[in-house]
Amino acid sequence: MASLQAVTAFFCGQLGFDHFIYALRMPTRLSDARLIMIDGYPASWVAHYFAQSYYDVDPVMSYCADNVLPIEWHNLDLQAGSASARMMEDAARFGLKSGVTMPLHGPNGELGILSFGADRADDAAHALTKQALPYVQLIAAHVHDAIKRLHGLDEVLERPRLSKRELECLRWVGDGKSSWEISQILNLSERTVNFHINNATTKLGATSRQHAATKAVLQHLIRPHPF
């Protein structure tokens, strides 16, 4: 991990940036997540960020949750006076005045980022972030792959294999349907529906049918019907 941090710090400097951070958030349940970080940001800013609960209003994280392309911070859509705008102004006071972030998405709902930041926000800094875009994408892919190998995440995040019927039943559980209602929708007996739901609950290591449906959504095993 230390060598990976050193390599990332080297590329950060080579690209002309002052700071960097890699973070990977892996949901374990709706109210919690596992976080892995390679931290090259000012320690005072990281402590301040968590103390202020800035992750709730972070415009960079908000962008990354819905996008796959890198974002230059000066191109973020910020409303003047908003909590997100104030957070970015606060970050600038800690030496993060401009930068670029690459989103990284995984198959089980993981969200990762690699950010490079600079302690300046002039035209030269904006030109720097634009020039760095293709390199940031390449570096992010390699750092993310290295993290997965170092932490064995490919094995940890391997999804259970659920049958088509188990997935169908869980999807309707997620919609609040009872076993009897699901049996009418799928033209199955109520006993068969319960059999599939119980199997899915066991495979997912869940404690209830609702918990199983939630875990299936978090792991992208079930999605809304297209129609």
Automatic annotation (TrEMBL):
Biological process, per Gene Ontology: regulation of DNA-templated transcription
Keyword Transcription regulation: yes
Keywords assigned by UniProt, alphabetized: DNA-binding, Transcription, Transcription regulation
Name this polypeptide is given: LuxR family transcriptional regulator
PANTHER family linked to this entry: DNA-BINDING TRANSCRIPTIONAL ACTIVATOR DEVR_DOSR
Gene3D superfamilies: Transcription factor LuxR-like, autoinducer-binding domain, Winged helix-like DNA-binding domain superfamily/Winged helix DNA-binding domain
InterPro entries, per database record: Sig_transdc_resp-reg_C-effctor, TF_LuxR_autoind-bd_dom, TF_LuxR_autoind-bd_dom_sf, Tscrpt_reg_LuxR_C, WH-like_DNA-bd_sf
Residue ranges annotated for the HTH luxR-type domain, each copy included: 155-220
GO MF annotation list: DNA binding
The keyword DNA damage appears for this protein: no
Superkingdom of the organism of origin: Bacteria
